[in-house]
Design a protein that fits this description.
The chain is an all-alpha fold. The chain folds into 2 domains: 1-87, no CATH class; 90-178, Orthogonal Bundle (Arc Repressor Mutant, subunit A). Helices cover 75% and strands 0% of the residues. The protein contains 9 helices and no strands. The protein has helices at 3-27, 30-44, 48-53, 57-75, 96-111, 114-125, 130-137, 141-163, 167-175. It is elongated. The termini are far apart. GO terms for molecular function: DNA binding; sigma factor activity. It holds the Pfam family Sigma70_r2. One of its GO terms (biological process) is DNA-templated transcription initiation. Keywords: DNA-binding, Sigma factor, Transcription, Transcription regulation.
Length: 178
């Protein structure tokens, strides 16, 4: 094995799981994410020396994953499945309220558009800034802000409905308007 192959193999061993988690969050499907990461790594391998010399190869691969996911969304009309937890099993005993809330959040994420879902994953799962998210998605910061705003509004509305009416609405329903 030459030096480039060894460097690529080491990178995949060290960061492959993180890339898979990232792709799973973007696609909502572990199997689709595995295929996506595999395809991106296959395309990156022949040019690995150049990619790794440029600076941060993980940034390059994450951007490639986002682009590949976008291409898949454009051509793939099948419905996305719910987010799946990567890297461990669910706890055996989950308090019922936590389970219901988690399920509501997963369902709400599932209802977002692919662009909104990508922004939420990058901003809140990956912890990227608006500028970093914009650079990774190859869009403007304004697009990131508007997508984030719309996605958060949709998530709040969906999760709020799943948890029941807000407390003020409950009191209005029970005793009429105040």
């Amino acid at each position: 094995m030459n030096e480039t192959e060894a460097d690529f193999t080491r990178f995949v061993k060290d960061r492959g799981t993180a890339l898979l988690r990232f792709a799973t969050a973007l696609t909502g499907d572990r199997h689709h994410a595995e295929d996506l990461v595999q395809a991106v790594l296959e395309r990156a391998f022949p040019k690995w020396k150049r990619i790794s010399r440029r600076g941060d190869p993980e940034w390059y691969l994450r951007r490639s994953i986002v682009n590949a996911a976008k291409d898949g969304w454009r051509s793939d009309t099948r419905a996305l499945t719910l987010l799946e937890r990567v890297g461990g099993e669910e706890p055996v005993a989950v308090p019922f309220d936590d389970y219901v809330r988690r399920d509501a959040v997963r369902r709400a994420l599932h209802e977002l558009s692919p662009g909104q879902r990508t922004v939420i994953v990058l901003r809140y799962w990956e912890g990227l800034s608006e500028a970093e998210t914009a650079a990774l998605m190859d869009v403007t910061v304004g697009t990131v802000k508007s997508q984030t705003h719309r996605a958060m509004r949709a998530l709040r509305g969906s999760v709020e409905l799943a948890d029941g009416p807000p407390p003020d609405a409950e009191s209005e329903m029970a005793g009429g308007r105040r």
